Amino acid sequence: MYSSPSQDVTKPLSLNKTVFLGSAIISILLIIWTIVFPDYSETLLGASMAWVSDKFGWYYMLVVAAYSIFALFVGFSKYGDIKLGQDHEKAQFPFLAWAAMLFSAGIGIDLLFFGASEPLMHYLTPHTGLEPASAEAMRQALAQTFLHWGLHGWGIYALIGMALAYFAYRKNMPLALRSPLTPIFGERLIKGWLGDGIDTFGVVCTLMGIATSLGIGVLQANAGLTHVFGIESSKMVQALIIVGVVVAAAVSAMTGVEKGVRRLSEFNMLSSILLLLAILVMGNTVYLLNTFTQNIGQYFQTIIYKTFDVYAYDGTAGADWKSSWTIFFWAWWVAWAPFVGLFIARISRGRTLREFVFGVMFIPLGFIFAWFSIFGNTAIDLVANGATALGETAVNNAAMGMFALFEYFPYSEVLSFAGVIIGLVFFVTSADSGALVLANLSSKGMTNDTDAPVWLRLFWAAATGLITLGLLFAGGFASLQSVSVIAGLPFSLILVLYMMSMWKSLKEEGNKRKASTIGTANVLDSGKGWKARLQRIVSFPGHAQVEKFLKTVVMPAMTEVEKEFKAGGLKTSLDAHNLASIGEDIDAGMDKDSVQVDGLKLRVGHGDEDDFIYEVNLIKAERPNFTLNTSNKQAEYYYRAEVFLSEGSQEYDLVGYTKEQVLVDILNQYERHLQYLHLER
Predict the structure, then answer these.
(1) What is the distance between the alpha carbons of residues 554 and 658, in angstroms, rounded to a whole number?
(2) Greater confidence, 3 or 498?
(3) CA-CA distance, 572 to 551, in Å (whole number)?
(4) What's the CA dihedral at 359, 361, 367, 372 to 10 degrees?
């Protein structure tokens, strides 16, 4: 396992006042408007949302399809093995922990809210052309639900997540919404007003989305408490729930992704699976397995038709149904994309693009198929066999749908209590991951592997709680939800630019790979000095030895070649840097007062084209087991002088090379870079 390679020096982490104040002012004005003028704002925003659906429904259907197709193309393509990070990096989180966080961030409490209610609504109040409560409506109900929660939505998350992670971890840019647009608009604009505007817009979208999700969550939680404990549904109870959840989210946010969010996500996934299995086992098991299988087939059989079905031949009724369901869901997924995409990118460092795409699009999809099939078909089967009260509850009060369903099972109190606990933990997970994303977006000086300070995470956790409380008492959730959906329209254009930027950058990666295959002279000798070569291969030097090698061999070679580049009229720089975290207190005999050289970077400028970067970093690595001396713990490690280019480590060690061999290696890599530039022209 390697330690982290050197990074360029970054500015100290601090508050981005432009993004912070801009997003705060816009959010406060929107919220005050919805609270002071609830009827007017709801009417205006509702009309605006209907206008967006009517005029741009066709656009939403096309662009959402394009997102998913592009994400799948990247996963299947020759670029799929590109790492979201440098080539030597390993995945930051174990697979199961990663899957659990994907599940919790992208699905959340909405799964409990809609699990039984949405299939029942499609069964009892289907789209035009279907008879309510008919056999055909029963078949179509789950296919329609799968459409709204399936590949299309996760394709949106996969697109934004891959773009953010790629430019952060592959290109060493900040993990921010602005970074993927650098190839299109240039570094100057993205670091200036345009980048601040994009991040400000992302903060507002995220804040509105989290507040509406907390609104749904508090209704779900209050419904559960009413059902289980008989606690009256009231604004005071809901306010206490919000305060409790925000406090828990603040504690979780303080512990960071690795502890708080990860552990809560693992609990969410495990407990949800157990609840799902309980309904499967206690319900009509064979029927549910049969419908689960058929639902999947129905979904994939109709997915192309439903992807482009805008109900153009169904008149006003079809347009209204499309607006309130499919277009609403597409806009909602897009509006949530900044929040979920940033969080998914944050937890996906070290995975390949192929792993990322198929993980994001298919891991949650399998669970969604199972969840909606088991809960939805159970509810539909009960209603079809006389449980009319369940259908009325689901249609009129969706938050109570799941708890009403539990009444038809043994141990209904236990199931309902479990549903309340799972919902509250989902609630906390959304709030703490949202606070983390908001804090990161409103900071500057961020590197791609750091998070904003704790105080800023606590501020945003408290802010989302206060906003939700204000809207709760003002009754402004419907208006805020409309704002979130309307905001999805301009952000959908940003996602189109993300696709263009990713395609441009992936083509560059392909050309770099192609250029690296050109023939070059072998750096090492042809065999005359084989003994020296063998000695180099089997040696495992310490920090001091490799640092001396950098100073006495690599630095003179790089200095000499830099002079020749300058003599040829090229703009160059040669920098030495020291990573305090590498080598400190590892070699007992190391002189702490000397100036350490843990890395050297040669940069050759090429104007508007990509610069050539040849970097040699002192890297700590584990020794092979067969060479270990168990009596000396420090001997478990050795050091390498590893070569890095702009795309990351090249996985080979220079220790033992002569100055001439280092010079030849630099020229080999430079020749490959020129070939890459030729292919790019």
Answers:
(1) 9
(2) 498
(3) 19
(4) 180
